[in-house]
Design a protein that fits this description.
mainly alpha; 6 helices; 0% strand; disordered C terminus; ligase; protein biosynthesis; nucleotide-binding
């Protein structure tokens, strides 16, 4: 996931929004699907929620209304668009 975050961040910096959508949505979804196929004992709940939060943060500058809705479904209380900067994702999930 961290590699996808970095690729998406680099595409944002270059203002390559079609590539942002490719790396932030389609490649992220493909990684999740591959994980689901390989997870014999089922997907880890914490990792699934981390994936949803990360992808929501990555796509927020492109589709803020949808991301705000997903963010509220996750139980987050602050106003997503004004209080959150996607650049913190890599720092907070760096392992």
């Amino acid at each position: 996931m961290n590699a996808g975050i970095l690729k998406t961040e680099q595409n944002y910096e270059k203002m390559m929004f079609k590539e942002v959508l490719k790396t932030g949505f389609f490649e992220f979804q493909a990684a999740k699907d591959k994980y689901r196929e390989l997870a014999i004992e089922g997907m880890h709940q914490g990792l699934v929620f981390r994936f949803i939060e990360t992808q929501t943060l990555l796509l927020a500058p492109i589709c803020p209304h949808l991301c705000e809705y997903v963010w509220s479904l996750l139980g987050k209380v602050f106003f997503f668009v004004t209080d959150c900067n996607p650049s913190f994702i890599y720092l907070s999930y760096k392992t």
